[in-house]
Amino acid sequence: MPRVGLTPDQVVDHALALLDEQGTEALTLASVAARAGVATPSLYKHVSGGLAELRRLIAVRVTDELADRLAEAAVGRSGDDAVTAVLRAYQAYATGHPHRYTALPQAPQPDEDLTRAATRLVGVIIAVLRGYGLDGSEAIHAARTVRSLAHGFASLSITGAFQLTEDLTTTHDRLVTTLTTGLRSWPRPA
Amino acid sequence: MPRVGLTPDQVVDHALALLDEQGTEALTLASVAARAGVATPSLYKHVSGGLAELRRLIAVRVTDELADRLAEAAVGRSGDDAVTAVLRAYQAYATGHPHRYTALPQAPQPDEDLTRAATRLVGVIIAVLRGYGLDGSEAIHAARTVRSLAHGFASLSITGAFQLTEDLTTTHDRLVTTLTTGLRSWPRPA
DNA sequence: CGGCTAAGGCTATTAGCCTTAGCTTTATGG
DNA sequence: CCATAAAGCTAAGGCTAATAGCCTTAGCCG
């Protein structure tokens, strides 16, 4: 039994590869173990919480990835330009890695690492909103609106909920315009 | 073995009750069968496709319910008033039946009944959009935007993705305003 | 260099799930 | 009254996650 030399990060790597290739259904400890060249119970040496923890680790990793993409898209831009770029990056990530994106919201209990990653993601949005003069509570409400639009469109388009033949890119453009218009006229506290 | 006299609809009833009470994890054929007073394999007499079909039937039922609520909310209203009422009804249904709502998007393959129910739901939105003079392709894009916002906010709020203390109702109000503003200035084909 | 310890593998086992096969009973219609 | 179809059952197979306990490797420390 040659030692494979697995680490938690490598386990997550294998899990993400399986997720990308075969979807959420195929993500089982058995399949991850097979891919890592190890018996199923051996995974518990690295991911002691079993499947639940693996899913948590995946959510953290994916949230971090997404936050990276949004941060990259925002750099060097401001205002409508920044919001547009961030929303496009969001949608590009979601459609480019549909199974990863779908695996995101299944992390139930509030976890410290996940909270940190999510906070970073929200931070990017909040930063972009400063270009509209928004901060404090109104920036929070605006950021939630941004996330709702981005997530809703991503989620619905991934699951194939938009059945008609109209171009999705056009829909996304309209959606972005709606958002930027709303942000420009966002209520300012007195 | 006294005959229970089960029907597919009753199986779905029991499944929904379990879903409401104990969440998605607890929705198994075994638990549904126990609740119906029947051995697990007997369910296949009514839901021949097993768990997959049961989930499909649930999605159809929930989509129909949601469409009903939206239609009720829209009746007798128009314009911003109608959009506001529809979005509030949407969010009220989602938060009132979080597990049902979460069970919605897992229906993978395009099913005839599900398509019919979803079409009815979209129809309510399209009808409301006529109050803004929207029809044709632009109405489709606008309806997708409406769904994205409604679904995104519902999904994120149900899963607890909004962690800060700011009032969710206020966020929803802002979100609705953003949407109505966008609809009023929606691009009209020449 | 010897030995101890901890980590990373393994097999075996349990419990629970979905699903199929085949039998038995009930209810119903002719 | 009987035949048949529907609706229940038990049994069994194959999958999953998870736990328990054993063995071996690697590395460190005296």
Search tags:
homodimer; 190 residues; mainly alpha; 8 helices; 68% helix; elongated; DNA-binding
Work out the number of β strands of chain A: 0
Largest interface (C-beta under 8 Å): A-B, 40 and 40 residues
**Oligomer state of the chains in this structure:** homodimer
Tell me the span between the first and last alpha carbons of chain A. 70 Å
Which residue ranges of chain A are poorly predicted, with pLDDT under 50 across at least 5 consecutive positions?
none
Order of helices and strands of chain A: HHHHHHHH
Total count of helical runs of at least 4 residues of chain A? 8
Beta strand % of chain A: under 5%
Alpha-beta content class of chain A: mainly alpha
* Shape descriptor of chain A: elongated
The whole-number mean of residue pLDDT values of chain A reads 94
Helix content of chain A: 55-70%
Gyration radius from CA atoms of chain A, angstroms: 19 Å
| Sheet of most strands of chain A | none
Topology:
The structure is a homodimer of 190-residue chains.
Chain A: H1 8-22, H2 29-36, H3 50-74, H4 79-96, H5 98-103, H6 112-129, H7 136-158, H8 168-184
Helix pairs in contact in A: 1-2, 1-3, 3-4, 3-6, 4-7, 4-8, 6-7, 7-8
Chain A binds a DNA duplex (30 and 30 nucleotides) through loops.
Fold and architecture overview:
The structure is a homodimer of 190-residue chains. By secondary structure, chain A is mainly α. Helix content of chain A is 68%, strand content 0%. Chain A has 8 helices and no strands. Chain A has helices spanning 8-22, 29-36, 50-74, 79-96, 98-103, 112-129, 136-158, 168-184. The longest helix of chain A has 25 residues, at 50-74. The radius of gyration of chain A is 19 Å and the shape is elongated. Chain A binds chain B through residues 105, 110, 115, 118, 137-138, 140-142, 144-145, 147-153, 155-156, 159-164, 166, 170-171, 174-175, 177-179, 181-183, 185-187, and chain B through 105, 110, 115, 118, 137-138, 140-142, 144-145, 147-153, 155-156, 159-164, 166, 170-171, 174-175, 177-179, 181-183, 185-187. The first copy, chain A, binds a DNA duplex (30 and 30 nucleotides) through residues 1-6, 28-30, 38-42, 44-46, 50-51.
